[in-house]
Amino acid sequence: MEACLEAALGINSDSLTWWQMAIRAVVVFCVALLILRIGSNRIFGKQTAFDIVLGIIYGSVLSRAITGNSPFFPTLVAALVLMLLHKGLAVAAYHSNFGFGNFIKGKPVVLIKNGEILRDALEKSTVTEDDLKEALRSKGTVDDLGKVKAAYLERSGKISVILKDN
Fold first, then answer.
1. What mean pLDDT is predicted for residues 45-67?
2. Which has more pLDDT, 15 or 141?
3. How far does CA 31 lie from the centroid of its chain?
4. Residues of CATH 3.30.240.20 domain(s) within the chain?
5. Of 64, 91, 108, 141, which shows the fewest CB atoms inside 10 Å?
6. Rounded Cα gap, residues 79 and 112, in angstroms
7. Residue 54 neighbours by CB under 8 Å, 6+ apart
8. Can you name the residues that pair with 163 across neighbouring β-strands?
9. Taking the CB of residue 83, how many other CB atoms lie within 10 A of it?
10. Partners of 161 in the beta sheet?
11. Report field, pTM of the whole predicted structure over 0.85
């Protein structure tokens, strides 16, 4: 059985055939789904820098298992370790009372407060006034900044807007 598995996946081979890569792709796909279920699929939902970094590294590591650029099973284990690290850091950030969560996931930045643009915050966040106005328009809000209670650059990079009560 072990010899069949090695032959099918090209485990001890110097080069892979197209069908070995195809089998590897199916196996890696199934294992990647399993690892995501063990870990957290938040990496594809929240889109904070913390999540995006894992998504990029996770994809890169798993692609090496498909193409044979790294040993097959140790690469799958590395992907699992990355996912467990991500989950562990997310849990630690959730339970942290000393700013660890802000360090790992970032924190929102106030861009508009009581209708006034906070130019220092824009500069620090490299958000232009045109970017801010575009976000206001895309949210269906108004061009009148006086009607904006607050606008935040969220951890995900999106701009959220809170309007003043009428």
1. 85
2. 15
3. 19
4. 108-163
5. 91
6. 41
7. 43, 82, 83, 86
8. 148
9. 21
10. 151
11. no
